[in-house]
Write a structure and sequence with these properties.
Length: 267
């Protein structure tokens, strides 16, 4: 069962199991100068470093509409993110008709509320839950991650526009090697991110994963940071949903307890 996709396919790519550790020293990250420059340009296109680095938390709201052939549930969403720690904390609430579904990273112990009960998930689900809907912040954090490598892959045509293709990845351990590769595509004219490709895993086995993508468009500036208002999600090359962002709030304050769900009972 891919709980992550049923909640929010492009974001929750996304337990009591501990995070796996590598038994060997990780290889030294390779940071290609051209790739680093492309990422820095993309970040600058979305706002100043000062504004982006000052973001400690965010709340994004809007609607998610699935395609006719996808199994994704549509509805109103509320995504909370906390960027104050070394890793992301994330909570997604989806209002689907009269039902509410919630996913939260749980400070390394992710869980999912299906409208009736809370079920704990394995730790790799939390690791893979990257808030791609805020690409400026994700890219800024990746650039400042000493364990992440950067590589120029080449150029590509994305939705009719020429884009620079950059891959970033961490190979410090099994989970990281399996799920951390992010293929970013930056518009050659504007520098803005137009797509990110990543691996979305099964909730039971991180090695059971497929290629997913999020396409970004219709950027709008909030508090000095450009945010895509339209995000189209794909899985294995097929579009599954489109998210339309209606409200973005930065640094309004989110409670640390929002990211923890009590296992086994109703919310």
């Amino acid at each position: 069962m891919r709980v992550a996709r049923s909640v929010l396919s492009f974001l929750l790519v996304l337990g009591s199991s501990p995070r796996l550790k590598s038994q060997q020293s990780p290889p030294t990250p390779q940071r290609d100068a051209q790739a680093m420059a492309a990422v820095q340009t993309a970040i600058a296109a979305q706002g100043s470093r000062t504004a982006i680095s000052a973001i400690g938390n965010a709340i994004v709201q809007g609607t998610l509409v699935p395609t006719q052939t996808s199994s994704v549930n549509g509805g109103n969403f509320k995504w909370e993110s906390d960027f104050s720690g070394s890793s992301y904390e994330f909570r997604s609430e989806m209002q689907i008709g009269g039902a509410r579904k919630v996913f939260a990273t749980g400070h390394g112990n992710p869980a999912f509320y299906n409208g009736k009960t809370v079920r704990r998930l394995f730790s790799h689900v939390a690791y893979a839950s990257v808030p791609f809907h805020l690409p400026a912040i994700v890219l800024f954090r990746e650039l400042n991650d000493p364990n992440r490598s950067f590589q120029v892959v080449g150029t590509a045509s994305i939705n009719g526009a020429r884009a620079v293709h950059i891959r970033t990845q961490v190979t410090a351990g099994p989970i990281e090697t399996e799920l951390s590769a992010h293929d970013w595509y930056f518009d050659s004219s504007t520098g803005l991110p137009v797509r990110v490709e990543y691996r979305t895993p099964s909730t039971l086995d991180m090695r059971d994963n497929i290629l997913a993508a999020a396409d970004f468009s219709n950027y709008k500036v909030f508090n000095g940071i450009a945010v895509p208002l339209t995000i189209t999600a794909s899985e294995d090359g097929e579009v599954v949903s489109t998210a339309t962002v209606s409200l973005v709030t930065f640094n309004s304050g989110v409670s640390s307890t929002d990211f923890d769900l009590k296992t086994g009972g109703a919310l």
